[in-house]
Amino acid sequence: MTTHPSPHCLSPLTVKTLQELAHERFAANRLTQAQFAQFRQELLSVFGMDFSGDFGVDCNQSDFSKNTTQDAWFLLGTDGCHLCEIAHSTLAQAKAVRTLPSVHSLDIAEIHTPELAELMIDTLGRSIPVLLTANALLCYPFGVMDILAQN
User: Fold this and answer.
1) In what order do the strands lie in the sheet with 130-132?
2) Helices (H) then strands (E): counts for the chain
3) Which of 40, 62, 106, 138 has its CA 20 to 30 Å from the CA of residue 56?
4) Bridge partners of 130?
5) Is 58 helix (H, G, I), strand (E, B) or coil?
6) Where is average pLDDT lowest: 30-44, 62-76, 85-99, 113-127?
7) Which letter does DSSP use for residue 127 in this model?
8) For the chain, what are the domain ranges?
9) What's the CATH number for 12-54+61-148?
10) CB contact set of 60 (below 8 Å; sequence gap of 6+)
């Protein structure tokens, strides 16, 4: 495993959790609710999310409010990832059963800060697609029941 310096915008807890996720897909489950909230916020900041609730210039989305961002789900993957396509299909199946929060795709290959891009690809690259909900991080494979179990 590559050792990464702690990027300035990520806490040691977030970097450690990402590194653990590279080897153990349930590593985020060990975080307390408060730790997970911080982890989620910092993870989304890597994609240009400022927590006034809007995406920065590096992202395609611009219609987020703070409340929407807090409730929204994010599917982290890469363009052309066949497993990401399966995850989108699985999410559609879950939406047929129950209303879900909005789901937004984020491409880990489009992170413009080289140090952060390397960290994200090294740590999450084997786990994509990754579904980041308000309360959990699900690494692939996940199914309809896993999705429906999320609050």
Assistant:
1) 103-107, 73-77, 130-132, 137-139
2) 6, 4
3) 138
4) 76, 139
5) coil
6) 62-76
7) T
8) 12-54+61-148
9) 3.40.30.10
10) none
